[in-house]
Amino acid sequence: MSKEEFPSEKDLPQEDQEKQAKAAEADKAGVKDDKEEAAKPADVELDQLKAEVAALTQKNKDLEDKYLRSQAEIQNAQRRYSKERANLVKYESQRLGKDILSSVDNLERALQVKADDEASRQLKKGIEMTLEGLVRALKDNGIEEIKADGEKFDPTLHQAVQSVPAENDEQKGHVVQVLQKGYVYKDRVLRPAMVVVAQ
């Protein structure tokens, strides 16, 4: 091919040269736009990643908080269980003691009946022995009678069912008669004493 077939830039008319220059500038601008467009998605992606990291960090904090709360609840439940178990062991005879108290009351009432003949005296002696055995068994298991007669009235230990006028100032607020004995089991009141209080 000869040079004549391919004209040089000098040989091109002015308009064609301007078109080529514009095309070259457009190509350069296109490269810049591509770079800017490539930079824009990178910034957006970075922002998305930062937001995702922040969300995951918050989720991690929430999960850690839930974990710590769960651990605290488990420890509280274990403490409560241990305390309830200790109370069950400590007060294991409480219900049996309550059930026996009515029998003790009945035996004490039976002993108040007068024994006129030899047979009734023998029967009374047997009742006394039974009562002593029951009272001893109750005491051995931590159940004791509440002292009430002549004591100062205590609403935690005594149940006032009647009041009478006091004979003197010293007698005021004190128990003057016990209608039914009360009992304590270790540090609990099984049954308060039913008493008459001087006012």
TrEMBL record:
<dbReference type="InterPro" id="IPR013805">
    <property type="entry name" value="GrpE_CC"/>
</dbReference>
<keyword id="KW-0143">Chaperone</keyword>
<dbReference type="GO" id="GO:0051087">
    <property type="term" value="F:protein-folding chaperone binding"/>
</dbReference>
<comment type="similarity">
    <text>Belongs to the GrpE family.</text>
</comment>
<dbReference type="Pfam" id="PF01025">
    <property type="entry name" value="GrpE"/>
</dbReference>
<comment type="subunit">
    <text>Homodimer.</text>
</comment>
<feature type="region of interest" description="Disordered">
    <location>
        <begin position="1"/>
        <end position="44"/>
    </location>
</feature>
<comment type="function">
    <text>Participates actively in the response to hyperosmotic and heat shock by preventing the aggregation of stress-denatured proteins, in association with DnaK and GrpE. It is the nucleotide exchange factor for DnaK and may function as a thermosensor. Unfolded proteins bind initially to DnaJ; upon interaction with the DnaJ-bound protein, DnaK hydrolyzes its bound ATP, resulting in the formation of a stable complex. GrpE releases ADP from DnaK; ATP binding to DnaK triggers the release of the substrate protein, thus completing the reaction cycle.</text>
</comment>
<dbReference type="GO" id="GO:0006457">
    <property type="term" value="P:protein folding"/>
</dbReference>
<dbReference type="InterPro" id="IPR000740">
    <property type="entry name" value="GrpE"/>
</dbReference>
<keyword id="KW-0963">Cytoplasm</keyword>
<dbReference type="GO" id="GO:0042803">
    <property type="term" value="F:protein homodimerization activity"/>
</dbReference>
<protein>
    <recommendedName>
        <fullName>Protein GrpE</fullName>
    </recommendedName>
</protein>
<dbReference type="GO" id="GO:0005737">
    <property type="term" value="C:cytoplasm"/>
</dbReference>
<dbReference type="GO" id="GO:0051082">
    <property type="term" value="F:unfolded protein binding"/>
</dbReference>
<dbReference type="InterPro" id="IPR009012">
    <property type="entry name" value="GrpE_head"/>
</dbReference>
<dbReference type="GO" id="GO:0000774">
    <property type="term" value="F:adenyl-nucleotide exchange factor activity"/>
</dbReference>
<keyword id="KW-0346">Stress response</keyword>
